[in-house]
Design goal:
single chain; alpha/beta; three-stranded antiparallel beta sheet; 20% helix; 14 strands; nine-stranded mixed beta sheet; TIM Barrel; 288 residues; 6 helices
Length: 288
């Protein structure tokens, strides 16, 4: 999904130890081959809070953020993290945002097929499943090796553009009608695959929704992003991230109001805001 609402209701081998909020001993590119060219000026950009030049960003609760997946990115927003679309933004835009000392997270769908994306032709036809209810997308077979190769290329693209991390969306297909017989174990395996491959490339990675598997997946992910846990009375399921000292970036959609949202999530230590469904630049933040 591009935006708005969900379709459904111990360290892994290869991930190196945490130290002072970052992964240590990890070179950009990992074992995924030679590192792509670094965007011009990237080597002179200041390192933001919680990140070292060779580490993976792991934000703590209390991290401000700007989530914009449509329109020209508003670079004037005073936030520590920007979450923007991987394909719709070039390396120059990412470099400009990072030059302000900000972290750039790049969004892509890891669980659906979008026929307008430039790599749509790389998806195996056998891995395309049912249409996603309410969206012009199709679920994909997360067990497919060909599908996983596409995701590796997307992570390579994120690395080559200079993204600090990624937000893989639609990682809860097992709980939806995908056209495939996906199990909870299949989903755990796939989500851990995404986290491992992101870390190999020096990329921070967030767990998007998939609340039923938070306890199993928290050790593999650096932060969480949730849509509408208040709407669905599910916010308590995100507590493992807070207990681990990792940020939970949380959104409720308009017409929810600051007065109705913030008093409920501030005690939970969530970094929450209200957004429009199209995820343009507009937002109302609980921290402002």
């Amino acid at each position: 999904m591009l935006s708005g609402g969900r379709p459904g209701s111990t360290s892994e081998q290869g991930i190196v130890p945490w130290q002072d909020g970052v992964v240590v001993g990890l070179e950009a590119g990992g074992d995924s081959g030679p590192a792509p060219d670094v965007p011009p000026g990237a080597d002179q950009m200041p390192a933001p809070d919680g990140m070292s030049p060779t580490g993976v960003w792991q934000p703590k609760p209390g991290t401000t953020w700007h989530w914009q997946l449509t329109g020209t990115v508003d670079q004037s927003v005073d936030a520590k993290m920007y979450d923007i679309d991987l394909f719709n933004n070039d390396a120059a835009t990412i470099t400009a945002i990072k030059a302000q000392g900000r972290v750039v997270i790049c969004y892509f769908s890891a669980g659906s097929y979008e026929d307008w994306r430039p790599d749509a032709g790389d998806f195996p036809q056998a891995a395309l499943g049912s249409k996603m209810e309410g969206w012009d997308e199709q679920w994909v077979d997360i067990r497919s090796s060909g599908l996983r190769d596409v995701m590796k290329k997307r992570l390579d693209l994120a690395q080559s553009k200079g993204c600090d991390g990624v937000e893989p969306d639609n990682v809860d297909g097992f709980a939806n009608s995908t056209g495939f017989s996906l199990t909870a174990s299949d989903q755990l395996d796939y989500n851990r695959f995404l986290a491992s491959e992101a870390h190999k490339r020096g990329l921070s990675v967030g767990l998007k929704n998939d609340l039923d598997q938070v306890s199993q997946l928290e050790p593999y992910f650096d932060w969480a992003l949730n849509e509408e846990c208040l709407q669905y009375s599910e916010c308590g399921q995100l507590s493992p991230f807070i207990q681990a000292g990792k940020a939970v970036f949380h959104v409720e959609y308009s017409p929810a109001s600051k007065n109705s949202v913030c008093p409920q999530v501030t005690p939970l230590k969530f970094d929450s805001q209200i957004k429009k469904l199209d995820l343009d630049a507009w937002f109302v933040a609980c921290w402002s």
